[in-house]
Amino acid sequence: MTSISELSPYDDDGTLNVVIETPQGSRNKLAFDEKLGLFRLKGVLPAGHSFPFDFGFIPSTAGEDGDPLDVLVLMDAAVYPGCLVPSRLIGVIEAEQTERGGKTERNDRLIAVAANSRVHETIKDLGDLSGPLLDEIEHFFISYNEAKGKQFCPKARRGHTAANRLVEAACRKR
């Protein structure tokens, strides 16, 4: 039996593996605790805030912050924490995040579409999303971090090619 921590970033057919931590609509921020092998409540968003889409990570990767790469997954309905969702990358919001103590580091947000999504099946690249939806996604990450006393500063929006390069680099760091 393979544990979540041992999953490959990609399936045999090249589809991206994403493990969902926090379902769409949730105010609870959940995070996989690799040492315990379970999901831990990491925080609660303020009233009126919730995750706009399912949020998770790509197993067997390491980002600039040392954690697995984060992914927001567009799909037709929310799934449960721990669900493996085959996905395709459509882009990335490149960003810097500043902690309370002033430490700033790169903390990009990958965006993917569930491979089985009917609603989003025609979306192949970040440019296929409407500008207002992208603005809402960025605003969510800005306000989410603000509520935690952090600053999230989007620097650029890039398509699936740049996003795939980030995943490849994160696989090598692991």
UniProtKB/TrEMBL annotation:
It comes from the Bacteria. Pfam families: Pyrophosphatase (PF00719). The keyword Metal-binding applies. One of its GO terms (biological process) is phosphate-containing compound metabolic process. Transmembrane segments: none annotated. It is an enzyme of class 3 (hydrolase). Its cofactor is Mg(2+). GO terms for molecular function: inorganic diphosphate phosphatase activity; magnesium ion binding. Its EC number is 3.6.1.1. Coiled coil: none annotated. GO terms for cellular component: cytoplasm. The keyword Transmembrane helix does not apply. Keywords: Hydrolase, Magnesium, Metal-binding. This is inorganic diphosphatase. It comes from Fimbriimonas ginsengisoli Gsoil 348.
